[in-house]
Amino acid sequence: MKAALVSTKLHHLYRNLIWRSFSTKFAMANSKFEYVRNFETDDRCLPNTWIVVRVDGRGFHKFSEKHEFAKPNDKRSLDLMGKAAGRVMTEFKEICLAYGQSDEFSFVFKRDMDLHKRRASKLMTSVASIFTSAFVFHWPQFFDIPLKYPPSFDGRVVLYPSTQNLRDYLSWRQADCHINNLYNTAFWTLVLKGNLTNAEVISLKVL
Ligand code: GTP
Ligand code: MG
């Protein structure tokens, strides 16, 4: 009994000695390698500017074909995009406005916010990641066919120093939406209802 107790104590002693020796070595190695942290660049967004994060579906031309999206606009897709954007806004209270069209969504962060120290990569990747996972998560609520492969969205950060610049940015995306819709509606009406081929429509000079 006594011998067993001594053996257990010795076991603990050895274990502690071995662990201390290892942890000292690891701590030394850690400080030796730690300099690599200095390679990380500081990507904090300029203070007092409007931060816009825009996500865009990657390869959605193919994705929309594979998942038989209606032409020119698929309501299920647009509603799902809106749902995913809502999820991003629930997650980030610092977003004051969002605007979406086609396979893209822009998120405007409040000018004075300091979330994640305004680090561009942290904000952009978080928004793109939450948006993508919400898009996949809510897919079955909007589509009755399963996903054929995982969709993804890229992201970018753009800074606008004045409110006028921000207004112009949103007007630009809105004009883009109208131009594309006008073109796509005319194009697909001529193909689907006018029985013209895609090439014939493209060759029409009025478009
Ligand atoms: P990258 O963004 O560069 O990866 O290319 P992309 O293929 O996603 O093209 P882009 O973002 O420029 O344009 C989005 C594309 O998605 C459109 O050109 C359409 O082909 C498709 N798309 C988006 N919304 C709809 C929709 O409601 N219906 C249909 N049929 N297609 C859509
Ligand atoms: Mg795209």
TrEMBL record:
Its EC number is 2.7.7.79. Mg(2+) 2 binds at residues 56, 103. It catalyses: a 5'-end ribonucleotide-tRNA(His) + GTP + ATP + H2O = a 5'-end phospho-guanosine-ribonucleotide-tRNA(His) + AMP + 2 diphosphate + H(+). Binds 2 magnesium ions per subunit. InterPro entries: Thg1_C_dom, tRNAHis_GuaTrfase_cat, tRNAHis_GuaTrfase_Thg1, tRNAHis_GuaTrfase_Thg1_sf. Its cofactor is Mg(2+). GO terms for molecular function: GTP binding; magnesium ion binding; tRNA guanylyltransferase activity. PANTHER family: TRNA(HIS) GUANYLYLTRANSFERASE-RELATED. This is Probable tRNA(His) guanylyltransferase.
